[in-house]
Specification:
heterodimer; A: about 400 residues; alpha+beta; Nucleotidyltransferase, domain 5; 60s Ribosomal Protein L30, Chain: A; about 35% helix; B: Rossmann fold; Elongation Factor Tu (Ef-tu), domain 3; eight-stranded antiparallel β-sheet; six-stranded mixed β-sheet; 22 helices; 23 strands; translation regulation (chain B); nucleotide-binding (chain B); Transl_B-barrel_sf (chain B); phosphoprotein (chain B); GTP-binding (chain B)
Chain lengths: ~400, ~675
């Protein structure tokens, strides 16, 4: 993302001009834009002209429109952001108040005006414009008969393809069927890697599985690569890395990212950092349950006593439509920071973020034990669950 | 309109849309339906209402069938009683208390007492275990005598069992949820009872009931509907040896495959020629000690690496039994395979390496001796034969043997095995000592004179098979058969399956007809609960069948859900279980990602009291009620309904974190 211009006045009102450069930036834009903001961007609009005689012609016009955003749609697979809203600046083609849906495009600037910019949003811009943050890793988690080919970017984990093949079990006298099924499965996974992994961008490709599946697959892939002359695989052989995982399901990516060998290679990426932070929370919950809390009510109470050392919060909470609720979370983050605590905003597109979103979306590691929180009854669970629920729609 | 339309399956609503306006005549002209058909298929409220109300008013106090029939009927009644009995409406805590109480009682009295009886008694004594048990057990002993003398009591006037048209309505007390095999199914009037139809009467029925009442929509042949499973079983299997499935478990490199391979060789199931081939080939690779293991480890990968990866299957015959051997992989990464094998097993053989250091490493925390034993126990295996293998490496020392036995005994007791169901046998898989013949080695015979391995297998008791229940079969493998279509192999958990039966497959409930049935490569006409079979289902979409799905009876299809409640026991976990915890759910052969979406209550392990409502997290060795949600719909049964299909395992990152029983299905 490129920041082209920024004007925010003292009342935190203002506008920002941004240019998305890669698909990941759409994710940032999705997190920035809230309902009620106004967005100005160039777009294509079908315009109908009626002549004096009554015949009408329609033509497609590229024009610049400003809309007040009413609904936001984000397609995670294609990384496309669509904003629907009413036109608030009339021009020669489009009347005031007419509905239009803006498709934000790569390499086209857009201007975003918010009635109030908060620290979370400003931070998000900073993060999005930081080029060092981008580090792409491809990961294949597999087991016999199941594989997920994923792309891990700084703030997103995208499942590019899921391969499910039923492989016949070994049985007396017909081992060939099993081996044939396995070969077919490997072939599909390899094709999927060739199709979905862009080796120009990707730093390394992790192949993770239980048992010997990864070794078998690795051997198969390079045998085929030599046979069929897949240059791209042979040239990038050094980028492949074999890691252990307990299963081929998506959430075993978490294990992969915790592997010391992987950590060494992709240290300080957001994905790995988040996994580590969540793991820390769970460890603390096990060892000193009075120092780890989750759920809005408990965390707010802990924040009141300035007890929070690390706050884990999922970014889907900031995407909520209720302005007051969002403000509440922003205030919480600010108060924790003021008290010298650390705040980790999890991307709900990562595996760990998904888990945090399910865990009410908010959790805290405390400086000192607060057993009194534990005793207070937890009626807010329902509320917290509801907060976690809207992450599912993403 | 063409004559070649399949009128029966047509969606009439679509067809009629706008149809009348164009042609201006009514539909009846086009599609005639005979009055008898109409009677059969159309719901006639008056008729149903009348018959049932007449029935109720006339027969205020119906004698239960049990009184006028023989023991068979009494059994039927007891069964129905516990199956179709609806739990009283209680709030969550009460429910939890009750369910744990019922389980507790069950563990003492077994299945002899109906669920209703237990529930009623528990409520009466407010979940006080001592009193409940006293009451129930006293009642049992009292009723035992009169039951015997009751057999000859003459038939009472009301005989709802007759097939005449006037009285096929069962006593109103009985919920139609679980239609009895016999008379009910054949009559197309099933939906006419206002209790289940729910078309005009807004009767409140839970989701479970809906799914079950929709059962009657699937039509089956009369023959299939009227079948008496028990009779058929006795007719078909009377002269055969009984089948039993045995899984061999243990730590990696304990010698499971070698032991089984040697056993197969000694019992004459592997020819001399094949064995010689294995010997030569393994010698070439410099791994001669693997020659017996190769009998079961057939894939190239398994042989090259020298470990079992997937469950190997084989069969031996003893004097009284046909035993299917399931050779489980011992390596940690292949536990999912081992679980799917263990779900098919009735009994287990735990192989322990007696070599110094080896036993200890397998038995330590994280070793598979421990995990496997706990796993098979929670999967419902309760008979265990412990084989102390490789005892020749320590010179058949009795000291070592007793040392291992004492250690294992205390552990197995903790894991929930009864002492009487566990046996310990020393042997050597490689040399073949004490396998099929009594011990020869003087070092061993000096202190051991117990049974050899084959005797141990021979001594396993055959568990009771639920043949009378509706059909449930879990799919463990899908492969291409020799003929057309593909084969589905798996284990029949309950009920009976015959050639040309109609069945429902998986969560999509696709209908299919059984084209061929084979068991151990031999074609069969009918198979029964406990059998390991291959079924050919033609014209079935292969995408609808996955490993782990359940094949069920069309009349009582299995509930399909994405969310259910389970009572779990948490094992040793590194991190506590919280809300939103992603786990892998193992159910039969199915492995499905799931999320713990709600922690309902923390339960006291032994008394079943609710310790804490809505706990924040579940730590080590706790027991709790939780709700689980899967991403895809799965077939699952309540533990109370089908023991075999109501068990689940939760695993995370290659470690089993909890085992549970399904208590409620959403």
């Amino acid at each position: 993302m490129k920041l082209l211009g920024k004007y925010v006045d003292k009342g935190m009102q203002g506008n920002v001009t941004l240019m998305p450069e890669e698909s990941e930036d759409m994710w940032h834009a999705y997190n920035l834009i809230a309902e009620g903001d106004s967005v100005r961007s160039t777009t294509i609009r079908k315009v109908q002209n009626e002549t004096a005689t009554g015949s009408s012609t329609s033509s497609r016009v590229r024009t610049t429109l400003t809309i007040a955003v009413e609904s936001i749609d984000f397609d995670t697979q294609a990384c496309v952001l669509r904003l629907k809203g009413r036109n608030i600046e009339e021009n020669q083609y489009v009347k005031m108040g007419a509905y239009h849906t803006l498709d934000l495009e790569l390499n086209r600037k857009f201007e975003l005006r918010k009635p109030e910019w908060d620290t979370i949003a400003l931070e998000r811009i900073e993060m999005a414009c930081d080029p060092t943050q981008s580090a792409d890793v491809a990961a294949v988690v597999m087991q016999e008969g199941l594989a997920h080919v994923c792309l891990i970017t700084a703030s997103m984990t995208l499942v590019r393809s899921k391969i499910e093949v039923s492989i016949p079990r070994k049985r007396k006298g017909s081992v060939q069927q099993h081996e044939k099924g396995l070969a077919k499965f490997y072939e599909q996974v390899m094709q999927s890697i060739l199709r979905h992994v862009n080796f120009d961008v990707v730093k390394c490709v992790l192949i993770a599985s239980p048992g010997f599946v990864r070794d078998q697959f690795y051997d198969y892939m390079f045998q085929q690569a030599v046979k069929m002359d897949y240059k791209i695989l042979l040239d990038n052989k050094s980028k492949f890395m074999l890691v252990h995982a307990s299963s081929g399901f998506k959430h075993s990516l978490k294990e992969v990212l915790q592997d010391p060998a992987v950590l060494a290679k992709m240290s300080d990426t957001k994905a790995a950092g988040e996994v580590k932070a969540l793991e820390q929370f769970y460890m603390l919950l096990q060892c000193e349950p009075a120092k780890a809390f989750y759920g809005k009510k408990h965390v707010l109470q802990a924040a009141e006593s300035q007890a929070i050392e690390t706050l884990l919060i999922s970014d889907n909470l900031f995407r909520c439509q209720d302005v007051n609720l969002r403000k509440e979370y922003v205030n919480l983050v600010e108060s924790v920071r003021d008290a010298g605590g650390e705040v980790k905003i999890f991307s709900s597109m990562h595996i760990s973020g998904e888990q945090l979103a399910q865990l009410t979306g908010i959790a805290a590691l405390l400086r000192f034990p607060m057993p009194e929180l534990e005793d207070s009854d937890d009626d807010d669970d329902e509320e917290g669950a509801a907060g976690g629920a809207d992450s599912d729609s993403d | 309109m063409s004559r070649h339309r399949i009128v029966r399956t047509m969606d009439y609503n679509d067809e009629y849309d706008g149809y009348d306006d164009i042609y201006g005549h009514s539909v009846e002209d086009e599609h005639c339906i005979s009055p008898t058909d109409a009677q059969q298929w159309l719901y006639d409220r008056a008729r149903g209402q009348q018959s049932i109300s007449a029935f109720i008013s006339k027969n205020k106090d119906i004698q239960e069938e049990e009184d006028d029939e023989d023991e068979d009927a009494a059994f039927e009644k007891a069964r129905r009683d516990s199956e179709s009995f609806q739990m009283p409406q209680l709030d969550e805590i009460e429910q939890a208390k009750l369910s744990s109480c019922v389980d507790e009682v069950r563990s003492v009295v077994g299945d002899a007492v109906s669920e209703r009886r237990i529930v009623e008694t528990s409520m009466k004594f407010e979940y006080d275990m001592q009193k409940i048990l006293d009451e129930i057990l006293n009642e049992e002993t009292k009723s035992a005598k009169p039951a015997a003398s009751r057999i000859k009591v003459p038939a009472a006037p009301v005989l709802p069992k007759s097939s005449s048209k006037t009285a096929p309505t069962p006593p109103p007390k009985i919920n139609l949820k679980e239609p009895r095999r016999g008379f009910e199914i054949a009559s197309p009037k099933v939906p006419s009872s206002p209790v289940v139809s729910g078309r005009n009467t807004p009767v409140d029925i839970g989701g479970d009931d809906i799914s079950r009442s929709s059962a009657s929509l699937f039509k089956v042949s009369k023959e299939q509907a009227l079948r008496n499973a028990r009779q058929l079983y006795e007719k078909e299997r009377a002269d055969q040896k009984s089948h039993i499935h045995m899984i061999v478990i243990g730590h990696v490199d304990a010698g499971k495959s070698t032991l089984m391979g040697h056993l197969l060789y000694d019992t004459g199931n592997v020819s001399q020629r094949v064995m010689h081939k294995h010997e030569q080939e393994s010698k070439k690779l410099g791994k001669q000690s693997f020659m017996y293991a190769w009998v079961l480890d057939e894939t190239g990968e398994e042989r090259a690496r020298g470990i079992t990866m997937d469950v190997g299957q084989s069969r031996i015959e003893t004097k009284t039994k046909i035993v299917t051997l399931l050779d489980a992989p011992g390596h940690k990464d292949f536990i999912p395979n081992m679980i799917s094998g263990a779900t098919q097993a009735d009994v287990a053989l735990l192989v322990v390496d007696a070599t110094r250091g080896e036993f200890e490493s397998g038995f330590e925390l994280g070793g598979q001796t421990r995990e496997h034993a706990i796993l098979v126990r929670s999967l419902g295996v309760n008979q265990l034969g412990v084989i102390i293998n490789k005892l020749d490496t320590v010179g058949w020392s009795q000291e070592r043997f007793t040392e291992i036995v004492t250690k294992l005994k205390s552990f197995l007791k903790q894991a929930g095995f009864k002492e009487s169901d566990v046996s310990f046998t020393p042997c050597s898989g490689l040399t073949g000592e004490n396998l099929t013949k009594n011990a020869q080695e003087s070092a061993l015979t000096s202190w051991y004179s117990g049974p050899h391995l084959l005797d141990v297998i021979e001594n396993f008791k055959i568990p009771e098979r639920a043949i009378d229940r509706p059909l449930r079969m879990s799919v463990s493998d899908i492969y291409k058969g020799t003929g057309s279509g593909f084969c589905i192999s798996g284990r029949v958990e309950t009920g009976v399956l015959c050639l040309n039966d109609k069945v429902l497959v998986g969560a999509s409930r696709e209908q299919a007809q059984v084209k061929s049935l084979t068991m151990n490569e031999f074609p069969q006409t009918s198979v029964f609960a406990g059998d390991q079979v291959s079924v050919t289902l033609p014209a079935l979409d292969i995408n609808n069948v996955t490993v782990g799905c359940i094949i069920s009876d069309p009349q009582t299809p299995i509930p399909v859900t994405t969310r259910f409640q389970a009572r779990i026991i948490v094992f040793n976990v590194k991190v506590p279980i919280t809300m939103g915890f992603p786990v892998l759910l193992h159910h039969q052969s199915l492995i499905e990602p799931a999320v713990v979406c709600k922690l309902t209550a923390l339960i006291h392990k032994s008394t079943g009291e609710v310790v804490k409502k809505k706990p924040r997290c579940l730590g080590n060795n706790s027991c709790a009620l939780v709700e689980l949600e899967t991403s895809r719909p799965i077939c699952i049964e309540r533990y109370a309904d089908f023991k075999e299909l109501g068990r689940v395992m939760l695993r995370v990152a290659g470690v089993t974190i909890a085992a549970g029983m399904v208590t409620k299905i959403r």
